[in-house]
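Study this chain:
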Amino acid sequence: MKAMLFAAGLGTRLKPFTNHSPKALVEVNNKTLLEHNIRYLQRFGIYEVVVNVHHFASQIEEAIYEHDGYGSEITISDERDEVLETGGGLKKAAPFFEGEDAFVVMNVDILTSLDLSKMIAHHESSDAIATLAVMKRASSRQLLFNEQMRLCGWMNTNTKEERISRREEPLIPFAFSGIQVLSQAVLKDIPFDGKFSLIDLYLHLAKEQVLQGYDHTGNIFIDVGKPESISQAEYLFQ
C-alpha cells in the first residue's frame, strides 16, 4: 500500500517558525513531523510515500535526501508554482496511486495513536469509496454522519453554515482527523480543477457514493498547528 502526506501548506498558525521553515520540519522530541509520520506509516507496512511541497519546498527535499527517505521510498509532488490545497494536491499526485486498490492520505501536522491497520481493514471490508478518521472532539468544523456513519454533510459550528449532501435524520457531528483511506473510485472523474479542498470533493461524492466515518475517539490525537501545541505533543509522544 502507498500513502500521501500533505506537506505543502503555509502553516500560518505555526508562525513565527514557518516564517523560515515549512511546518513539516517542526520538531517534536528532536524528530520532525515529517519523520514522525513517515515512521508512523512504516509501522503499518507502508514504505512508498508521496509528499507534496510548496512552502520552503527545497528544505523538505533536502531533509528527505539527507536522511535517505527515513527508510522509505519518497516521491515529491511539486506545487511550487501554486499550492493546490488538499483536493488539488491529491489530484496532481493521482498518477502515483495508479494500480493501487486503496491508499492512505494524511496531513503531515498531526500525531495520533490510531491503529491504521484496523482502519484499513475496516475500509477494505466495506462498500465505501472513502473512509475518514473522525473523533468526538471540539472543532469549529464538523462532518455530519447518519447513524450508519455514512457521510451526509458538513457544518461550521461558529457561523452555523451547513452543506448537506444527503438529508437524513439524525445527523451526528464528528471532527475530521485528517487521515483517510481512499479507493481508486475517488480519483475517477474528479469534477474540480486547480485549487480545491478534499472536503469539497467528499461532499460532492457523498450525494451518490458511500463515504464512511471511522470513529477513533479515545485515541491520542493532536493537531500540531500552533506553537503551544508542540509542548503538548512532546508530552504525549515521548
User: Anything to note?
Assistant: The chain has a mean pLDDT of 96. Residues 2-236 form a domain with the Spore Coat Polysaccharide Biosynthesis Protein SpsA; Chain A fold (CATH 3.90.550.10). The two ends are 27 Å apart (CA to CA).
